[in-house]
Amino acid sequence: MKETVFTRMSGWIPNVIREDGELMLAAGADANHDPRTFTFPISEAHLAVIREDLARHLLLWSAVLPLCDDAGTRGRIDENAAVALLDPILLAAPADVDALFRRIRWDRSRLIAHGADTGLLERGQVCAAMCAATETSNGKRAQEYHADRRRAERGAVLDPLDAAILRYTGQYLHGATVPRRLPDAVDPALLPEVMRVIATAEQACAGMRIGRDPRRGKRATDRRDWDRMKTTVEAAVRRAHPELVDDAVRTVSFLMCSEAADRSRNTPMEDDEEAAGHRADLGGSARKTVLSFTDDKGVEKKWLRDSPRTAAAEFWEFVADRSAADNEVFTIEDEEMGEGIQLHFYADSLARITTLREGDGRSDPEYRVEYSLVDGIGGYRKLVSAFVRGGCAALEQHGPWMSDVAEFERARRRRDAR
After folding, report:
1. pTM of the prediction?
2. Which residues contact 369 (CB under 8 A, 6 or more apart)?
């Protein structure tokens, strides 16, 4: 037979139950998202303190939680260790309780969530710290405390404006969180100052963009564009607001870059090409009636002149669909003109291939193959657009082109060494 003798407003604060005539403390813990309840015996004297003194009740819970965690998903709580905590925490003088907490493991977050004074906790005065304890829990308060502790360990101390900027972007607790604009999270008195910092960043990156990088999938963006915008924004913000700490400056640049990347991801491929300055419109591609796109797995896709989409946009869509760690070579071929280009994403290089002599059944065709190094996705976009506009001849200005493979490999090694 089990009955509840005493419980508090929060269901997680340990209850007191009577089971088969014996008083027990029922302490809960979340083991891999599977809540468990552990029980161990207490006395009537312990119950009296638990009933009347919220602070002692919470201190006991914070000391018992590590034992619950040790029990894990299937183990039994160390009942002797739990019982040994009862008298020193519930019945001893405050100075003795403070001394005990300097020797044992305890859950600091639990006490902070229930209103503990963090300054007193850090000075080891746990009883005094719990004078304003509340039954209701505020988990965000504990999260903010630990976030501040992590920053302090790195030597970063926030002033009110720094903190307000991090709250505005939603990154006060976790720096890896995707930033957003959350004006309601900021103290209204500080919001105008925050918006001045944001305006500085917006002006610095006005006109800049972060293009997509189809080599890494449909929603991937150009890392170089991101780094360029990040550097520009951070330099401008530091110049205009030198009092800000690095965490605040970084969160503003992260916000600007994330928003620019989202705009790019939601832009049709044709508009992305045009914005990047590499548009290959149909009028400029008059020579090209049919182009064949292939990947390293033998998959082929045709582009026809009357297609509603541009050749470059169609090709990069093909790349975004097919590119993978084991599929990094893509080809565009104009069979009618006997020429094509091959993109080697694994090596940041490109080959242009021109047919010098067609095969006639008695002999194989003869090709001229020339290689060039490519500077990131921007370089690839430029070369693809030039080819679909004017074929291999249009690529001449984008060299140098090397027909000697050994010479090309030496050039590639020199670049990679840099």
Report:
1. 0.76
2. 351, 352, 353, 403
